[in-house]
Write a structure and sequence with these properties.
The complex is a heterodimer of chains A (311) and B (246). Chain A is built from 11 helices and 14 strands. With 311 residues, chain A is of the alpha/beta class. Chain B contains 11 helices and no strands. By secondary structure, chain B is mainly alpha-helical. The chains are: A alpha/beta (311), B mainly alpha (246).
């Protein structure tokens, strides 16, 4: 069986004149959290729908675990868990009934369903309210239950469309821990869309950035950050003099030096390894006083904004 | 496949029976229909109720159809409206399992509650005629109620799912269904007025001269054919990519 969770080749999906997904080619390796980032309307949800066989491509190909879509949609959906834009919960039913329905769907025996429901609901702090109709719950609680439903049958590939949206910070942090543990312990592949770039940076080992359906960049968070700008070091201190600046500028990995009264920004050349010690040594040798040194890497947000043209 | 159909039907029944909010209202509405349609007329009819053509038509056709009609618009349009359809479609269930599960749940709902109505009405008829010996439907009538009820309920379940499949809202599905239910009567009445009076008299004579069993058999065959056709059309129109209307 093909172990590649998701592979697309020139995948395109149009709605009238709009290209929701435009010539998308990428591969998502197994056992990682893959972050799919983009602004609203970038084509993230459409890509998930294509990957689940809920939409047919206009052109190009998409395969999940080697199954071509939409023709082999059912074989794909057998192996997936989903939390889509809406929780998809039956609000007239209780939490237990909601989970039981999806457990029955995946042919889980009754004892297994019961144990799994108790395990997940207890873990998420919902066990005490298991018999209440979900419609009376808060948005955050519903969201947690929808996450439990997505995980219920131990899927090989998990699609999470903005999973922490609507969760309080504590619950969001707990969910991030759970997602990381899921990947580490069960080898699940997670396809994650989020607007929370810090979350993506923490969780994802591979990130794709899309705009208007086109894949702008694909790489690890470090690779994307490095594309956003050259690495730099911020030095707080005083006594910057011409000799000190000249000595630092002469270092081979230094591209430029920006001087302010109590602050010096040393910009390194691309692909250089940022070593602060030689810079500090040169400054101190030239008589400057160094109080603090901060590595000033570009954040994923910088990378994201620079790629989509927001900065 | 059967397990998957049962799973979908289980969920539907769970919503009918223990679902809160809209589910509770649905249960009360069904109970009201059974009581109004069955109880009042049965009470005043007495022993005649057991052999009355009205009782037969009410229990075998009217009640199953109306009870199914109260729920069917919700089948797909309700899921769409409450944003549960996409997650359901993203599950491992096949198209057939989802469609047949919903039709099975709706058909069994109308049919079983229709049977409850039939039993309730004969009990009430007995109460209304306490001075007489206890009575029940003849075996033929009981069999007819059981058999025809499935087909009548299935007819509305099939037509309703077909309409609800692509309707953006429950309200729109209900409106379309109402038109579909009313249309045959309106067309019939207008059609009869266009026919010359002599032809109308001939038609009525022919109909009244029909053998009851033969007419019933023709009706059953017609219902089986229509039910099967509706299910086949609904299955052909069940396209996941078309069901996700935004």
């Amino acid at each position: 069986m093909n172990q590649v969770p998701l592979q697309t080749e020139h995948l395109t999906r149009t709605f009238g004149a709009i290209n929701a997904v435009d010539d998308l080619s990428m591969t998502v390796p197994a056992g990682i959290v893959f972050g799919f980032l983009g602004t609203n309307g970038a084509g993230k949800s459409t890509t998930i729908r294509l990957a689940l066989g809920l939409l047919a491509p206009t052109s190009g190909q998409i395969a999940v675990f080697g199954h071509m879509l939409p023709a082999e949609g059912q074989a794909v959906r057998e192996q997936c868990g989903v939390l889509l834009e809406h929780t998809g919960l039956y609000e007239r039913l209780s939490a237990l009934d909601n989970l039981d329905f999806y457990g029955r769907m995946w042919n889980m025996p009754a004892a297994h369903r019961k144990a799994r429901a108790q395990e997940l609901l207890t873990h998420l702090g919902l066990w005490e309210r298991r018999d209440q109709a979900v419609g009376a719950w808060s948005k955050g609680m519903k969201h947690k239950l929808a996450v439990a439903r997505a995980l219920f049958h131990h899927p090989r590939l998990l699609f999470l469309d903005e999973p922490t949206n609507g969760l309080d910070p504590q619950a969001a942090a707990a969910l991030r821990v759970d997602i990381a543990a899921l990947v580490q312990q069960e080898g699940t592949t997670v396809f994650l869309t989020t607007h929370n770039l810090a979350e993506a940076e923490k969780l994802c080992s591979l990130i794709g950035i899309v705009r208007a359906g086109r894949l702008l960049a694909l790489g690890s968070p470090e690779e994307l950050r490095s594309r956003a700008g050259r690495p730099e070091v911020e030095i707080i201190g005083s006594g910057w003099n011409a000799a000190a600046l000249a000595r630092v500028s002469a270092l081979s990995q230094v591209a430029s030096v920006l001087q302010e009264p109590n602050r010096l920004v040393v910009v390194f050349t691309n692909n250089s390894h940022v070593e602060t010690a030689p810079v500090v040594s040169e400054l101190v040798a030239a008589g400057a006083q160094v109080e603090e040194v901060r590595r000033g890497n570009a954040s994923l947000e910088d990378a994201f904004l620079s790629l989509i043209g927001g900065r | 496949m059967l397990h998957d159909i049962w799973t979908v039907a289980w969920k539907e029944w769970r919503e009918y029976l223990v679902g809160q909010g809209g589910g509770r209202f649905g249960r009360l509405r069904s109970l009201a229909i059974i009581l109004i349609a069955g109880a009042f007329i049965a009470f005043s009819s007495g022993a005649q109720w057991a052999t009355s053509p009205l009782a037969f038509l009410l229990s075998s056709v009217y009640l199953p159809m109306v009870l199914t009609l109260t729920m069917v618009a919700d089948s797909f349009a309700g899921e769409r409206e409450r944003h549960t359809l996409e997650t359901l479609l993203a599950s491992r269930l096949s198209d057939r399992a989802i469609l047949f599960g919903k039709i099975a749940a709706l058909t069994s709902y109308g049919w079983l509650l229709g049977l409850v109505g039939a039993v309730l009405s004969i009990v009430i008829a007995n109460i209304g005629a306490l001075h007489e010996a206890p009575f029940f439907y003849t075996p033929q009538t009981a069999l007819g109620i059981v058999g025809l009820g499935v087909l009548a309920s299935g007819l509305i379940a099939g037509a309703g799912c077909l309409v609800s499949l692509r309707a953006p809202t429950v309200r729109q599905a209900q409106q379309t269904l109402s038109l579909l239910v009313i249309a045959p009567f309106v067309i019939g009445v207008i059609g009869m007025q266009l026919v010359p009076e002599s032809a109308q008299a001939n038609l009525l004579n022919t109909l009244s001269g029909l053998d009851g069993r033969a007419a019933l058999l023709v009706g059953v065959l017609a219902l089986v054919t229509i039910d099967g056709t509706l299910v086949a059309i609904a299955l052909a129109r069940f396209r996941r990519d078309r069901l996700l209307l935004d």
